[in-house]
Write a structure and sequence with these properties.
By secondary structure, the chain is of the alpha/beta class. It has 10 helices and 7 strands. 39% of the residues lie in helices and 15% in strands.
């Protein structure tokens, strides 16, 4: 790969996926220069908050691993200097890593503007060039081209063939389709409601709209400004939200499933 400008490829591990609230727990940067020279910088980061068990399960990073690590504010200057004027790359950096990094810099009192740099996001390129539809799955699992795609019967037959092959591949010697039930199809339950007006974070429920958006947990708002919650009951919100808000006004706070 030949470069005209330096390129920094980065990856962040964090306490979660909420850009406005979650914190970095590990950062890694690899800088490649046009002459082929490479540098790297990596550090654990103390997020000054609890690392959710699910994050530890995914990343392997525990509270013990970061308790003596620097805060992001402690290393922000080094990170900024390392990046310099380089272009940026990674996997899903456009939607996650770069916005989170920008917010962490802002919290540290530094401005990070990457709008004039070229961003090379491997995930975007991957999704553009490698299809992930039924036809692609049929080729991947069954090694055949799907004829009459988008014909309901052909698509259903292809899906059945794919499931059969998945049992063969992932069923650990079992022939029953029930073997596929062992896989963890974890739903995205970061939000309380389908309209995404309320979001879970660190065990508490936060609003994503209005004057309290992303600022304080719902249980705090209920105590300091119950009239605002009463206003929600009078407006055009879903029945699920109104039932939940009425419960909060009655002192019954919602709990996240699985917590």
């Amino acid at each position: 790969m030949k470069l005209i400008r330096p390129l920094v490829v980065l990856d962040l591990e964090s306490t979660g996926t909420w850009i406005e609230k979650d914190r970095i727990i590990e950062i890694a940067l690899i800088k490649t220069h046009p002459d082929g020279q490479k540098e790297q910088y990596a550090s654990k980061v103390n997020p000054a908050m609890a690392i959710p068990p699910r994050v530890t399960e995914i990343t392997g990073i525990t509270q013990e691993d970061v308790k003596d690590a620097p805060s992001f504010g402690d290393i922000a200057g080094k990170v900024m200097q390392f990046i310099g004027e380089a272009d940026l790359g990674g996997f899903n950096v456009d939607r996650f890593d770069l916005p989170l990094l920008t917010r962490e810099f802002a919290d540290a009192g530094m401005k990070f503007d990457y709008s004039q740099r070229t961003i090379y996001d491997a995930q975007k390129i991957y999704h553009l060039h490698e299809r992930r539809d039924l036809s692609a799955a049929f080729v991947f699992y069954c090694h055949q081209e799907l004829k009459d795609a988008h014909s309901a019967l052909a698509d259903a037959q292809a899906a059945l063939s794919i499931l059969d092959e998945q049992v063969n591949r992932y069923g650990e010697g079992q022939e029953q389709i029930e073997s596929l039930k062992a896989f963890d199809y974890e739903p995205n339950n970061e939000y309380f409601d389908t309209d995404r007006k309320f979001r879970w974070w660190n065990g508490d429920l936060y609003m994503t709209f209005g004057k309290y958006a992303r600022k304080e947990p719902l249980k705090v708002i209920a105590k300091k400004d119950p009239y605002y919650l009463q206003w929600i009951l009078e407006k055009d919100f879903s029945d699920d939200i109104k039932v939940m808000i009425q419960g909060v006004l009655n002192g019954q706070y919602p709990k996240k499933e699985g917590s």
